[in-house]
Design goal:
heterodimer; A: 758 residues; Alpha-Beta Plaits; Calcium-transporting ATPase, cytoplasmic transduction domain A; 5 domains; seven-stranded mixed sheet; B: 58 residues; mainly alpha; 0% strand
């Protein structure tokens, strides 16, 4: 039965009777795809323009109102072989885009100014050692001032505003010495130019801004790219709901537009789109994403279900409840709030350095001033030397030391399918000594798997899998994944609550409960633990039994072993029953596990670990993990996690494998080592530069060389992080392409690389 | 020395021209899809129509 798909909530009015909407498109790989998609969309009557952005895989369509339906676009895309998902830009992403553009404009202005002033400065420097006249030098200095002052006023804004904000909060960040250094350098240069002096520092001030903006821009651009991918993934994951209108008509709407009181139809296999109460029907609900419980829960009228659960067997009608009516979510949010409050503010390495650094350089400048005055220099000379000390120590290298490493590390993780929500998570990841895993959906795969596929004859498996393609039952979906040919059989009948049947090769084929297929359950105790569900298949005389249950991620054991060999303690805190957790813990060799833990107990367990002095990395996916993700020192979630949990986690990883967890920790440790090195390099630079400046020997030429040289050194040092991969023969351990290969070998090689650093 | 009177303004205005051109291209959205631009240039279906699809909206 074709249903009306209502996507009007995604359309934006564009003026002159037109609307636009944006779709995240899956399956775009090449230039040919761009042409095909755009041409296909423009063929739809009413469409005015279609533009596919290849960088972020988003298609923007404009159409004349009433002449085209948004739902047609999805159908047209599908007929071309692409999947389109309506996309709603998030405020946070738009903010990032704006900030990045602003930084790029500032960078352009600073770059223009730096180049043109350098043109003039080099002339002055070469003239100073040959035959420049004082008049020409003054002219060049005035021209430099003309460029530098407006350019610095514009390009320096990101630093000035941040410095003011920090000072208002009565703290000092790195932008305070930066702003002070730039302003003093410019002010002094203007005064020196007025007095026709030999040296002016316009070039130093603007070059400093250029280098610093470069670091910030790279940082912002990486964050924006991460957000764009996260936004697309959210669109891909976004659920639709079948809303039952007052007249009984069913309209498919995006889950995000559901309001309290709406009635929603849930067919078997549907994910629950919003929290609500069952008003009709009975079924079983898979709550694994909500509570961690792996065994389905039977529900009937007036039972409460939560967004993220999956309806398994029967058709249900759900009445959506408003936020605040829901005891579980309220409890989770209350726990999250208190965990966030309890989380003491962590002082980042960069802030620590800034706190140490700012007073130190300001004292050095003051000592210089007093020293030169004491030795009988004029006030003018003393002030000029003191300011050159401030200019030369302006934390060019220091301000780049940490962001440069963060950008390289985040970029590396990004390529390996790990998305960081903030660069500061790297430092916290490097400090962990304990890893706490949730079980369901984290150590295990989020969807149930056929665990005995190897025991079933391949021909029979293929037929069962193709028959299963016709069903939306979650257990059937597990079997359907084994189909090589992805077309369903024709004329498949579904017997609600029993199974499906079709005529295959002239013989009836049935897939469903063992009784429906007339297949006996195994007599001996089943070898696949207690929580497996049995699905039977019969085709004529041949029959097979499939054991379907939650199974471990393919490389879980290797990943846990790697974590242990890195000296980390590994624990399991699961909301599931003890007899479901015990086999998993045994398979992974984890002795330290707890089962049937409530969200509040999870937070309490983490607090107890914290009290012991442990720094905990929490890896979890369920709604019940959200508070503990906040409470932990640092946290990660798989991409299949509940939305609320994903928003709390510091990092999100893609794919079926668990290897991203050790990969993230290794990269973070290496990154922190490089950050430390960079801070030392920056300190060393000052150790040499400051005495020279205090002695009054610094000229603008020396300042320019020293500043750009030190910035270059720390940036190159940061890039060494990428060499980490080369040590292991170029195999990024978290690359999805490696999923089929034995994960153990590359993962085990990690500690070696880690050790070679120390 | 007199040569500076016009060389200096010329040098500066050339630089300024570059800056303005960059800021214009940024505002025009030419950096929104760098990967796509690299592929589009290879397409041989650049009919005159293509100019009309200029990006109004991201």
């Amino acid at each position: 039965m074709p249903q009306k798909l209502d996507l009007s909530s995604f359309a934006r009015p564009a003026g002159n009777g037109q609307s636009t909407m944006t779709l995240a498109v899956e399956g775009v790989h090449c230039g040919g795809c761009i042409a095909r998609v755009e041409a296909g969309m423009r063929k739809i009557p009413g469409v005015v323009e279609a533009r596919l952005n290849f960088s972020n895989r988003r298609l923007t369509i404009a159409w004349r109102n009433h002449e085209a339906e948004p739902a047609d676009f999805l159908v047209a895309l599908e007929s071309l072989g692409y999947q389109g998902h309506p996309f709603q830009a998030r405020a946070a992403e738009q903010e990032e885009v704006r900030y990045e553009k602003w930084l790029l404009r500032c960078l352009a202005v600073a770059g223009f100014a730096a180049m043109n002033i350098m043109l003039l400065s080099v002339s002055v420097w070469s003239g100073n050692v040959s035959d420049i006249t004082p008049e020409t030098r003054d002219l060049f200095h005035w021209a430099s001032a003309l460029i530098a002052l407006p350019a610095a006023a514009y390009a320096g804004l990101p630093f000035f505003l941040s410095a003011i904000a920090a000072l208002k909060a009565r703290s000092v960040n790195m932008d305070v010495p930066i702003s002070l250094g730039v302003m003093l350098a410019l002010g002094m240069s203007v005064v020196e130019t007025l007095n026709s002096a030999t040296h002016a520092y316009f070039d130093s001030a603007v070059m400093l801004l250029f280098f610093l903006l470069l670091g910030r821009y790279l940082d912002a651009s990486l964050r924006r790219r991460t957000r764009a991918v996260a936004g697309n993934l959210a669109a891909l994951k976004a659920e639709t709901a079948q809303r039952v209108a007052a007249d009984g008509q069913i309209v498919v709407v995006p889950a995000s537009v559901l309001a309290a009181g709406d009635r929603v139809l849930l067919r078997p296999g549907d994910r629950v789109p919003a929290d609500g109460i069952i008003v009709a029907g009975q079924s079983e609900i898979d709550d694994s994403l909500v509570t961690g419980e792996s065994v389905p829960r039977p529900v009937r009228e007036s039972a409460t279900v939560y967004a993220g659960s999956v309806n398994i067997s029967g058709t249900l009608t759900l009445q959506v409840t408003a936020a605040g009516e829901n005891t579980l979510i309220d409890e989770i949010e209350r726990l999250m709030d208190s965990a966030a409050k309890a989380k003491s503010r962590i002082v980042h390495l960069a802030d620590r350095a800034a706190r140490l650094y700012a007073p130190l350089v300001h004292t050095a400048a003051a000592v210089t001033l007093v020293g030169w005055l004491a030795f009988g220099a004029s006030a003018h000379t003393a002030i000029v030397v003191a300011i050159t000390v401030l200019i030369i120590t302006c934390p060019c290298a220091l301000a780049l030391a940490i962001p440069a490493v963060q950008v390289v590390a985040a970029g590396r993780l990004f390529r390996n399918g790990i998305f960081l929500h903030g660069g500061d998570a790297i430092e916290r990841l490097a400090e962990v000594d304990t890893v706490v895993f949730d079980k369901t959906g984290t150590l295990t795969l989020p969807e149930p798997q056929v665990v005995n596929a190897a025991d079933i004859p391949p021909g029979l498996l293929e037929r069962a899998a193709r028959l299963a393609l016709a069903s939306r039952h979650p257990l059937a979906a597990a079997i359907a994944r084994h189909a090589h040919e992805r077309s369903a059989f024709a004329d498949v009948r579904e017997e609600p609550g029993q199974g499906i049947c079709a005529i295959v090769d002239g013989v009836e084929a049935r897939l469903g409960s063992p009784a429906y297929c007339d297949v006996a359950l195994p007599q001996r105790p089943d070898p696949y633990a207690t929580d497996a569900s049995w699905i039977a298949f019969r085709h004529g005389k041949k029959a097979a039994l499939f054991a379907v249950r939650q199974s471990l991620r393919p490389d879980a054991r290797a990943a846990v072993d790697t974590l242990r060999s890195m000296g980390l303690r590994v624990r399991i805190l699961s909301g599931d029953r003890a007899d479901a957790v015990a086999p998993v813990a045994a398979a992974l060799g984890i002795a330290d596990w707890s089962a049937a833990v409530t969200p509040a107990d999870k937070v309490a367990a983490l607090d107890a670990l914290k009290a012991e002095g442990c720094r905990v990395l929490m890896v979890g996916d369920g709604l019940n993990d959200a508070p503990s993700l906040v409470a932990a020192h640092v946290s990660m979630s798989p991409i299949t996690a509940a939305d609320l949990s994903q928003a709390q986690a510091d990092a999100v990883f893609l794919g079926e494998r668990l290897a991203p967890v050790p990969e993230a920790v290794v990269t973070a440790r290496r990154a922190r080592a490089l950050m430390r090195q960079n801070l030392w390099l920056a300190g060393l630079y000052n150790l040499f530069a400051v005495p020279v400046a205090m002695a009054g020997l610094v000229t603008p030429l020396i300042a320019a060389l020293a500043m750009s040289g030190s910035s270059l050194i720390v940036t190159l040092n940061a890039l060494r992080l990428n060499a980490l991969r080369l040590h292991r023969g170029g195999a990024p351990i978290a690359a999805p392409a490696q999923a089929e290969n034995g994960p153990a070998a590359p993962v085990r090689a990690l500690p070696v690389a880690e050790g070679s650093r120390a | 020395m007199n040569v500076l009177v016009y060389l200096l303004p010329i040098a500066l205005s050339l630089g300024l021209l570059g800056l303005v051109a960059f800021l214009w291209s940024l505002k025009d959205g030419q950096y929104e899809d760098l990967d796509g631009a690299a592929l589009r240039v290879l397409g041989d279906d650049d009919l005159p129509k293509e100019k009309e699809w200029k990006e109004k909206d991201r």
